[in-house]
Amino acid sequence: MNKDTRTSNGFEFPNTAKEMDRRSVIFGSAVASSSLLFAPIISSPAMASPKGTNIIPEWTLDGGVQFPTLALNTVGLSADETEEAVRLAKLSGITHIDFHPGKERDGVAQFMKKEGREGLFLNTKIRKAKPGTSPSDAAELARLQIEEDLKVLGVESVDMLMLRDSPDCEVIQAQWAVLENALASGKTKSLGVINFCESAMSCVLQSAKVKPALNYYMLHVGIGKDAHGLRTFCESRGVRTFAYGAVGEPGPSEELLTSPLLKKIGASHKKSPEEVALRWVTQGGAAVSVRPTTNFGLGTSVCKSPKCEEGIRARASSFQWSLTKGEMKALDSVTSPDDNPTLFSSSGCPNSFVMPK
């Protein structure tokens, strides 16, 4: 693999981009080179899990944090299913575990109690403060949750904490300051945000001493590679894209899974439509968090073998094959299903999700 170059923001690009203007990715830049913004993730055998058989590329974040670009998304799994999914993921080479506080966290704790933490990248989320919560109370809730999560997990720190948005900018800023303190005190190694639209991102950047390493939002074929401009907005400010929902959310998209185009492309590679959908995201330069199977819905998911094991293995092998330039171009041009990238944001962002009554 060619030697990588690294910007002051911790971004790494192949040496073919050496002569490009690095100023385009410096924090606060108004203009960025599209070739840098959507640089494909490049894999190397050196990035493979020592116990897995698949190559999972990594990003180097500020502070030298190695961020695996493929994560297991445990949302909706029970504690026991989370434990099993983590076990299967690690066997397949997926070491990045993307989980929520509560039963998923408890399942991760169960796994580590039996197998240990070695090799795992632990990535968890701060709960949303209820509407009307004062900034000071929201900050305290975040602080208490961090302490609780570390205690339940039995660790002194996690690898990443991600903050959900709020319709109140002061709440975002107050909670972000708590996360910055957690970073400074060694309780986490990196920070990110979840479902931040442009206004939420602008809010956190106004007061941030440490900018988010990434923004976690939905990205799939049909939304467009620029996610309605959100990707350029964030990446031009040094905030990377970490995607979920490669086959749709809050449930799998029937339109994607039955797409004639995805089926045709998949057939030429002996891959399923869902594998094509995932590869489009990763080959487009975003990191991605994946559900273990397509058996999921709003707040629910299932990990039962053999389907769970088969699903995780297929996802872990995503970097072992590539779409052609023509196939990427065709998928880039698809305009349906067109969803809101920050679907699960708060009411402070446009077109946010409303829970069914």
How is this fold's topology laid out?
Blueprint: E1 4-6, E2 12-14, H1 34-37, E3 58-60, E4 66-68, E5 70-73, H2 79-92, E6 96-99, H3 103-115, E7 121-126, H4 135-153, E8 160-164, H5 169-184, E9 191-194, H6 198-207, E10 214-218, H7 230-235, E11 240-244, H8 254-257, H9 260-269, H10 273-283, E12 287-290, E13 296-297, E14 300-301, H11 307-316, H12 325-332
Parallel strand pairs: 5-6, 5-12, 6-7, 7-8, 8-9, 9-10, 10-11, 11-12
Antiparallel strand pairs: 1-2, 3-4, 13-14
Brief overview, please?
The chain is an alpha/beta fold. It is 35% helix and 15% strand. Strands 5-6-7-8-9-10-11-12 form an eight-stranded parallel barrel, surrounded by six helices. Strands 1-2 form a two-stranded antiparallel ribbon. It has a two-stranded antiparallel sheet with strand order 3-4.
What is the number of helical segments per DSSP (H or I, 4+ residues)? 12
Question: How do the helices and strands follow one another from N- to C-terminus?
Answer: EEHEEEHEHEHEHEHEHEHHHEEEHH
Task: Order the strands across the largest sheet as they lie in space.
Answer: 5-6-7-8-9-10-11-12
E-strand count: 14
**Helix proportion of residues, in percent?**
25-40%
Radius of gyration, CA atoms, in whole angstroms: 19 Å
Alpha-beta classification = alpha/beta
Distance separating the two termini: 53 Å
Averaged pLDDT, please? Answer: 89
**Global geometry:** globular
Largest sheet: 8 strands, parallel, barrel
What percent of residues are in strands? 5-15%
Report the uncertain regions. Answer: 1-36, 44-52
